[in-house]
């Protein structure tokens, strides 16, 4: 941990992290981000994101700025304009939408092969959302269909989630926070 990070911790400040939240439309991205905010800051009504929106939430040691990107087909080309700024990715999959799993895989492959992402060791958190829906695919099955085992050069983790209740979200955010903190420590060690 560098001197600046120690000072930030000592002063009680939180390191800011830019996170891209991606996934097809109606996968639950906005609902997940809303659930991650404190209960007094949560919206009562969730509407589909048009273009993108910026949301913030905090954990014990990080302050997250989340770019909630629309998953509608006509807006997906906007995603790449934010890749350079992203320090982590949350990729949300509707585990009950078996028909569009192929489309989700295509979008994931496009993301992973983009020049601004391909050579970066950026952590990717997958939320297999809507696990409460009857006949939803398990997170293991979602992982297989997306061929996540082929991602060798980036840390990744998949969690089964129910965004409406908040189930599985904390596990994922804890993993993401650990990855970001570990990456920061590794970067400090390289500079030392």
Automatic annotation (TrEMBL):
Its main location: membrane. InterPro entries: Arl6 (IPR041839), P-loop_NTPase (IPR027417), Small_GTP-bd (IPR005225), Small_GTPase_ARF (IPR024156), Small_GTPase_ARF/SAR (IPR006689). It comes from the Eukaryota. One of its GO terms (biological process) is cell projection organization. Keywords: Cell membrane, Cell projection, Cilium biogenesis/degradation, Cytoplasm, Cytoskeleton, GTP-binding, Lipoprotein, Magnesium, Membrane, Metal-binding, Myristate, Nucleotide-binding. GO terms for molecular function: GTP binding; GTPase activity; metal ion binding. One of its GO terms (cellular component) is ciliary membrane. Pfam families: Arf. This is ADP-ribosylation factor-like protein 6.
